[in-house]
Structures are given as structure tokens and as C-alpha cells.
């Protein structure tokens, strides 16, 4: 019951934040005067969303959602391992997109941008509502998806989770970079979210 309440409050706060922010932007750009301080309401909604979102993911139901996502990712990996050994020809970018479309570790809407240079692949996800722990879990899921593909053309992989802060600006919440050599060595089925910092070649997380 408590978990459901946290979940509902988180989602309602998210919707309220979007509405209040839209109203704030509207009155700001038109020069009209609103009846209420929509900017303050949007900020309060954001704080409520962050607080109750954290409480939800620390509740039994929230942990069950995370556990379910991990179990499904582990099952997909296990099936891939059991198949006859042969080099995958799956496109790495396509695999990443499929993983982000199917993941259960991101509960809210998110936008994905992939940039592939000759030697590097960058995955940038903009998400307005999910928690830092969700971003860590999704990072591991993306690395698993990459590892199932023929990824040898890339020397390094960077996975970034951003949050919109208004006026077209974004704030980086979690950023992980691993080289091809590191990815080969990682046992992603045993990798915990609190090990990302020590196992990655470069890791940043907002304080």
C-alpha cells in the first residue's frame, strides 16, 4: 500500500511539474502575468518527485521492479550464452536502441541519441524523472546489449544520462565510459551498480 502511494505521488508530481513548467514558460515568453507562481510550483513538484521516487525504489515494490528488470536482462544474457558460439553480426547501435525500448529499469519517458564516430560510440539518454539507481541499472543493461554484438569496430563506449533543467539546458546525472578491452573483461552478470565507478575506465555521478 505504501509502495503504491509512493509510486502514485511520484508520477503525479512528474505530471504536475510538466504542467507547471509549461505554464511558467508560457507566461514568461508572452509577458503576461500568471495568477500563481508556476515556477515555484514546478520546483516543488520536482522535489516531491525526487523524494518519493527514491522512497518508491527503496520500497518492496520498487525493489521488485528493479529485481524484475535485472532478472529479465540476466535471462536474455543466459540464453545468448547457451547458443552455439559464433560471432554476432548484430548491429551495436540497433542492439542499444532495442535494449532501451525494452528496459524495465526506466519507468518514465526518455529520449535517446546515439553518436557513432569511427572508433567511439556515445549513448545519450535524457530522462526527466527516473532515479540515479535506475540510470546505473540501465547502464549495465546497455553494456550487456553491446557485448552481445560485434563491437570490435569501437575502441570505447560512453553512456550518459542527462536531465533537462530548463531553457534547453541539460545536467549530466550519470556518465560511464569503458574501453573495448575493459568491456571484454567485465562479468556483467555479476556486476553490481555500486561497482560501476571502480570497474569503468571513467565514471561520473552528480553529487
Automatic annotation (TrEMBL):
Keywords: Membrane, Transmembrane, Transmembrane helix. Residues 70-81 have a biased composition (Basic and acidic residues). It comes from Lentilactobacillus buchneri DSM 20057. This is Uncharacterized protein. Residues 70-93 are annotated as: Disordered. The chain crosses the membrane at residues 12-29, 41-58.
Amino acid at each position: 500500500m505504501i509502495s503504491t502511494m509512493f509510486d502514485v505521488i511520484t508520477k503525479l508530481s512528474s505530471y504536475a511539474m510538466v504542467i507547471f513548467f509549461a505554464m511558467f514558460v508560457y507566461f514568461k515568453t508572452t509577458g503576461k502575468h500568471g495568477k500563481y507562481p508556476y515556477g515555484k510550483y514546478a520546483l516543488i513538484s520536482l522535489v516531491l518527485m525526487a523524494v518519493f521516487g527514491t522512497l518508491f525504489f527503496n520500497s518492496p515494490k520498487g525493489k521488485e521492479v528493479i529485481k524484475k528488470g535485472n532478472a529479465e536482462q540476466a535471462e536474455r544474457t543466459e540464453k545468448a550464452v547457451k547458443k552455439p558460439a559464433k560471432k554476432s553480426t548484430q548491429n551495436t547501435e540497433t542492439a542499444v536502441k532495442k535494449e532501451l525500448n525494452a528496459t524495465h529499469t526506466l519507468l518514465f519517458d526518455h529520449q535517446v541519441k546515439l553518436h557513432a564516430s569511427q572508433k567511439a560510440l556515445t549513448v545519450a539518454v535524457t530522462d526527466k524523472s527516473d532515479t540515479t539507481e535506475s540510470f546505473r541499472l540501465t547502464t549495465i543493461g546497455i553494456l550487456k546489449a553491446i557485448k552481445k554484438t560485434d563491437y570490435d569496430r569501437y575502441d570505447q563506449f560512453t553512456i550518459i544520462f542527462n536531465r533537462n533543467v530548463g531553457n534547453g539546458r541539460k545536467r549530466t546525472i550519470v556518465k560511464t565510459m569503458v574501453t573495448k578491452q575493459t568491456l571484454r573483461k567485465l562479468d556483467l552478470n555479476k556486476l553490481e551498480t555500486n561497482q560501476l565507478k571502480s570497474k569503468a575506465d571513467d565514471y561520473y555521478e552528480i553529487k
